[in-house]
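Need residues for this backbone.
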């Protein structure tokens, strides 16, 4: 599960970089939402992964 979270976080960061720089201005809002969503999922995975 942690592997998938890291993969999606990287994808969201790449989408965010493309969206924030104006290359894909129409997808900037979606990239921001995905970035923060997967950042939260990544942190939760780290927290719950250590509790095992």
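Answer:
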């Amino acid at each position: 599960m942690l592997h998938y979270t890291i993969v999606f976080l990287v994808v969201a960061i790449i989408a965010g970089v493309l969206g924030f720089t104006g290359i894909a201005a129409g997808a900037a809002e979606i990239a921001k939402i995905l970035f923060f969503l997967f950042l939260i999922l990544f942190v939760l995975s780290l927290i719950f992964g250590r509790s095992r």
